[in-house]
Specification:
alpha+beta, 6-stranded mixed sheet, 4 helices, binds zinc ion
């Protein structure tokens, strides 16, 4: 991650169970200081996930997490928001449902950013992290599992640094990783 920026990346991160991974750092409990959104081509290059709608859904959600948006639903139903877990795969691969934010997402953003202090955490000049910056690929660095959806597809992990900065990770698990053991911490399911 690079302070003041959101880094958006896609790569073949391996068959580690996640389709998408959003990481944000929060200082003082309120301000997001940096973020990254990663899309895992190891899965998006396979038949199940290799379609425009599924890619857009996951990408939209991961990037939106770095702005501070949370899910509208995690049960697999479509709220026609990319902040849900509708699966644009199989019979629904051609469906553009849930591939974009909906009005509720935009309303939430307006609320989040209408705060009245003068803090800004935006970098004055955009910059990219180096390709070697893959620290958050190590699940052991994610900290504590603080919530997970009943179907096992959505997990949130939190870790605290010594300076009090909180790092939140939103993990978008594959159908396979989730169904194998919905209640398990998928970090330890071991390969998919
Ligand atoms: Zn998510």
């Amino acid at each position: 991650m690079v302070s003041g920026t959101t880094q958006v990346c896609n790569a073949a991160y391996g068959f580690n169970g996640w389709l998408g991974l959003a990481t944000i750092s929060i200082t003082g409990g309120t301000h997001i200081t940096q973020g990254s959104a990663k899309m895992n081509d190891s899965y998006f290059n396979t038949g199940t996930y290799n379609n425009t709608n599924e890619r857009q859904h996951v990408m939209c959600q991961e990037v939106a997490h770095t702005f501070g948006l949370d899910h509208q639903s995690t049960d697999g139903s479509s709220q026609n928001s990319c902040m849900d877990y509708f699966s644009n795969t199989g019979a629904n691969a051609g469906s553009a449902l849930s591939t974009q934010p909906n009005q509720h997402d935009f309303d939430e953003l307006a609320l989040i950013y209408a705060h009245l202090d003068s803090t800004t955490t935006v970098a004055s000049a955009p910059s990219k992290s180096s390709a070697a910056d893959n620290a958050d690929d190590d699940p052991n660095s994610w900290g504590m599992l603080v919530s997970q959806s009943n179907n096992g597809r959505s997990s949130t992990y939190e870790a605290y640094d010594r300076d009090g900065t909180k790092t939140v990770r939103h993990v978008y698990w594959t159908l396979e990783a989730a169904s194998k053991c919905p209640g398990c911490d998928h970090r330890y399911d071991g390969g998919h």
